From TrEMBL:
The keyword Signal applies. Residues 231-328 form the SCP domain. It comes from Oceaniferula spumae. This is SCP domain-containing protein. InterPro entries: CAP_dom (IPR014044), CAP_sf (IPR035940). It comes from the Bacteria. The keyword Signal applies. Keywords: Signal. Residues 1-24 form the signal peptide.
Length: 340
């Protein structure tokens, strides 16, 4: 078997001693040779990284230049390999379509039950169905890597070692960079993984636009996270994602504040001009078609979980009639508003 591209590049580009035997090896060359050998044998490389701080500045700079010369090819070669691994893993999971359809049918059928049986069904099968759908439809990079053969896993260990080496050299030589090599590599892998998602592409685009809208309109991060989590569950269940409405967030936040301040917990507010959810939405220049309320935690995921297990709230959160969503927090109170 021929050497992998990564190993060949390491030997030919990073270890000039392998080509020019007549030249005296620098401490940096010896470090690279030791790193290559250690990675090939699946050994611990931390000791080698620790030794970088003992190198003279000139050798650190020279070593960085050698690594920098080969890094783009190493990175791109691995991402190309990872794309093939991911496609193979995705192909093997093609027989999950029937299971996905069955789980979505099971979730949809729960909404047609009376409240008592529905609550029991949601408790026993609701969230397990969502979790299974998540595992089938939202692949994880680590799960894709787990399907790789030993040679491919060794390639990844090698490229991660070189990425870490580059980062340490950058830090030691005080070279300004906006992103570490390790994060650059893992983000590229995650981009490949996300492209394999079996979720509705339009829904994913809405979620990405929601993130941008929330940032632009300064929607508090816990509220944005709560909206994203609700949308993810909707996509897993086979429903459309909802567009975030910052004005609904404001109206929801205002109602949450009123509930805590005035010590009530209800959809009907005692405050003049705020009696119904739609009244409250109109006060902020929008409209509402449904509302969920929750109290007891500062965590948006806890609020969503509480609504998920409650039949009436669940039907609201998973209604196909909504197009917009807003979430508003005040301390431990939450209000979720929907709009058509």
């Amino acid at each position: 078997m021929h050497r992998s591209l990564i190993t060949s590049l390491l030997v030919l580009t990073l270890c000039p001693l392998a080509i020019h035997q007549s030249q005296a090896a620098t401490a940096g060359d010896e470090l690279l040779a030791a790193l290559t050998k250690r990675v090939e044998n699946n050994g611990d490389v931390s000791e080698i990284f620790d030794s970088i701080e003992d190198l003279p500045n000139s050798e650190v700079t020279d070593l960085y230049k050698k690594v920098e010369r080969v890094w783009p090819r190493l990175r791109d070669a691995w991402i190309s390999d990872f794309q093939r691994i991911a496609r193979d893993a995705s192909g093997k999971s093609g027989n999950n379509k029937n299971r996905i359809r069955d789980l979505r049918k099971e979730l949809a059928a729960m909404q047609g039950l009376a409240d008592g049986p529905m609550k029991e069904a949601l408790k026993k099968r609701g969230m397990p169905a969502i979790d299974e759908l998540r595992s089938l439809l939202v692949p994880k990079t680590k799960d894709i890597i787990a399907t790789a053969d030993d040679a491919q896993k060794k390639k990844r260990r090698t490229i991660l070692a070189i990425a870490r080496l580059r980062d340490i050299l950058v830090e030691t030589a005080i070279i300004p960079l906006t992103q570490t090599s390790v994060s650059e590599l893992t983000e590229a892998e995650n981009t490949v993984t996300r492209a394999l998602s079996g979720l509705d592409r339009k829904g994913l685009k809405i979620m990405e636009n929601n993130r941008k809208t929330a940032e632009k309109k300064k929607v508090p991060e816990p509220e944005r996270i709560g909206v994203a989590d609700a949308n993810m569950m909707r996509l897993l269940a086979g429903l459309s994602a909802l567009e975030i409405d910052p004005k609904l967030c404001e109206a929801a936040r205002d109602h949450s504040k009123d509930m805590e301040t005035l010590n009530f917990f209800a959809h009907e507010s005692p405050v003049k001009g705020k009696r119904t959810p739609n009244d409250r939405a109109k006060n902020f220049g929008t409209s509402a078609s449904g509302e969920n309320i929750y109290a007891g935690s500062t965590d948006p995921l806890s609020a969503n979980k509480g609504w998920f297990y409650s039949p009436g709230h669940h039907r609201n959160m998973f209604s196909s009639g909504h197009r917009r969503i807003g979430l508003g927090q005040h301390n431990r109170h939450w209000t979720q508003l929907f709009g058509r």
